[in-house]
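Bumping my old thread because nobody answered last time. Still need a sequence for this structure:
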């Protein structure tokens, strides 16, 4: 519009030649506009000019109407002559302006067609420009993809260099290289469009296989170098202070005959302390090595090498545990080996075995379980499998001694050590269930439970054998003065110790419960033993030819029985009725002894 206002002013006299020149200039200026935006139309550029011309044409028409009105007014006023000249000049000017306007409109109309042709001519250029822009974008994308691909090649070369150096220099960098190689394999596996992609993938897989093979060797070497047998002193340090051996031996159980109060009290105190005391955790291998073993195990499992990992761990750790137990004093014994032992030796070995079981389950195997949990964290089935296989043979070696004891010949003196063995198995039951948890360890749990039941069965049978042995004791030892017989003191001491094992016996009877109360069962068995003793004493009393000694013998032995029961826990179990009844028996034999003895005196006086 500014252009038209300068070059197409209606007040100015313009020739058609000048109008064409200025229109040509306008065309040249418009043709020089470049680059053109997409969808641009030159008609839009001329629209303001058209509107300006249209407005001026309308103004001319309005001026004509005003002129007519002025002329009419002038005629009425009488100034027709002067106004007529002015009106003629104005009319002439308006006609010229109208002519110019019409010419401009005609010129601008021609511009429409010229601009349409120009726009058509520019369209191929626009299309080429768009194609160039798209090509530029595609080139950018290709360059970025190439950068990613080259970066993967760089990662592959770096990982290959690290893997070829091996894990000895820097294990953590070696593991990172394997992880980078795995990512590299996943990248080329998902990008199948590269011509050399398959070759790169094959090379990466081959390199990964070599890396994992070196990783297996590193895992084995690291595990073997850190796995050392545990010395007994280290195991003893994990025991509570009250349970640590003071004389350098793993256990110290009592006097030779197995019935001394020192032996039994020691066992009871040890069992009581074991339940309340806390055991220190055993460190199987250096803590700084465990995370490295865990990382190695993770990479081996991810590569599908679970079986190789299982075999390596089992072979290494199983031998270490076995050697640790042997250093402690554990040995595999058969029934024949047990049968050949003197009772004093066997009793000492049983006492040691009780101590070994506690140390093995609460310290050694518990430590191995923690180690497995740390190394194979995240792989539950593999963790339980490794633990079961590296401890299975060692548990079997420990239990073999108990199995041999249950199969050996029964004897009354074995009852208390059998009860001690049964007690330790009951004490360790919850610990065994916790340490040997999981489906894979079910066989180990069943074997320990089986030994517990066999010990209970053997103890109960030995109990029955003792009752029968008391009743059928046929010793010819005669007590010349009618005092207490050795069998009586032996049986009474035996019964006293039985009551020290009262809770264990109740549990044992509960194993074979038939519906009655365990307390009444223990009382019934005790009464049967006392009755068997009394029956045997009656038989032995008949060895005396002097009736006075017969009654004196029975009086002394039954009195010893009553006095011992009254001073022990057996009184609560046998009851006051038993005590009163047998006191009357003692009094009867005393009266008979007086009558028979004084009868001889009177008979001599009468003679």
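Sorry it took so long. Here it is:
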């Amino acid at each position: 519009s500014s252009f038209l206002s300068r070059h197409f002013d209606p007040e100015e006299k313009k020739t058609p030649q000048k109008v064409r020149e200025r229109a040509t200039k306008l065309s040249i200026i418009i043709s020089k506009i470049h680059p053109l935006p997409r969808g641009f139309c030159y008609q839009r550029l001329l629209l303001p000019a058209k509107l300006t011309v249209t407005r001026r044409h309308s103004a001319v028409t309005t001026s004509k109407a005003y002129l007519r009105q002025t002329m009419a007014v002038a005629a009425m006023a009488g100034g027709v002559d002067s106004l007529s000249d002015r009106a003629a000049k104005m009319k002439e000017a308006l006609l010229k302006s109208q002519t110019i306007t019409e010419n401009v409109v005609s010129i601008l109309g021609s511009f429409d067609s010229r601009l349409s042709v120009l726009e058509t001519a520019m369209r191929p250029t626009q299309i080429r420009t768009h194609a160039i822009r798209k090509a530029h974008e595609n080139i950018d994308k290709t360059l970025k993809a190439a950068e990613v691909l080259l970066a993967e090649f760089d990662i592959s070369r770096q990982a290959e260099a690290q893997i070829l150096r091996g894990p000895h220099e820097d294990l953590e960098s070696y593991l990172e290289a394997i992880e980078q190689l795995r990512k590299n394999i996943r990248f080329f596996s998902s990008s199948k469009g590269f011509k050399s992609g398959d070759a790169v993938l094959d090379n990466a897989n081959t390199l990964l296989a070599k890396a994992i093979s070196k990783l297996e060797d590193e895992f084995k070497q690291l595990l073997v170098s850190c796995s050392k047998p545990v010395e007994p002193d280290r195991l003893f340090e994990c025991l509570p202070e009250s349970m640590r051996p003071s004389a350098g031996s793993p256990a110290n159980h009592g006097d030779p005959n197995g019935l001394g109060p020192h032996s039994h009290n020691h066992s009871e105190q040890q069992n009581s302390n074991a339940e309340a005391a806390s055991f220190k955790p055993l460190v199987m291998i250096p803590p700084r090595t465990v995370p490295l073993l865990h990382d190695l195990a993770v990479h081996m499992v991810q590569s599908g090498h679970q079986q190789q990992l299982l075999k390596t761990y089992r072979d290494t750790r199983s031998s270490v545990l076995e050697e640790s137990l042997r250093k402690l004093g554990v040995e595999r014994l058969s029934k024949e080996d047990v049968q050949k032992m003197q009772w004093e030796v066997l009793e000492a070995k049983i006492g040691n075995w009780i101590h070994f079981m506690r140390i093995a389950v609460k310290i050694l195997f518990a430590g191995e379980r923690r180690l497995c949990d740390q190394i194979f964290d995240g792989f539950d089935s593999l963790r339980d499998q490794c633990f079961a296989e590296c401890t299975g043979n060692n548990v079997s070696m420990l239990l073999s001694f108990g199995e041999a004891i249950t199969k050996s010949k029964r004897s009354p003196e074995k009852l208390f050590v059998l009860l001690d063995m049964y007690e330790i198995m009951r004490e360790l039951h919850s610990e065994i269930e916790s340490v040997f948890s999981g489906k894979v360890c079910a066989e180990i749990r069943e074997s320990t439970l089986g030994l517990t039941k066999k010990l209970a069965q053997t103890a109960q049978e030995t109990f029955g054998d003792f009752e029968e042995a008391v009743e059928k004791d046929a010793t010819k030892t005669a007590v010349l003065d009618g005092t207490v017989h050795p069998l009586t003191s032996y049986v009474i001491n035996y019964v006293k110790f039985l009551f020290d094992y009262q809770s264990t016996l109740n549990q044992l009877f509960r194993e074979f419960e038939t519906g009655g109360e365990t307390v009444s069962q223990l009382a019934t068995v005790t009464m049967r033993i006392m009755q068997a003793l009394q029956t045997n004493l009656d038989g032995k009393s008949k060895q005396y030819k002097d009736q006075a000694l017969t009654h004196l013998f029975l009086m002394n032995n039954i009195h010893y029985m009553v006095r011992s029961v009254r001073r022990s826990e057996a009184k609560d179990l046998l009851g006051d009725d038993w005590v009163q009844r047998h006191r009357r028996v003692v009094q009867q034999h005393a009266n008979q002894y007086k009558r028979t003895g004084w009868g001889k005196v009177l008979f001599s006086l009468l003679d």
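The CA atoms of residues 53 and 105 lie 7 Å apart. Let me know if any region looks off to you.
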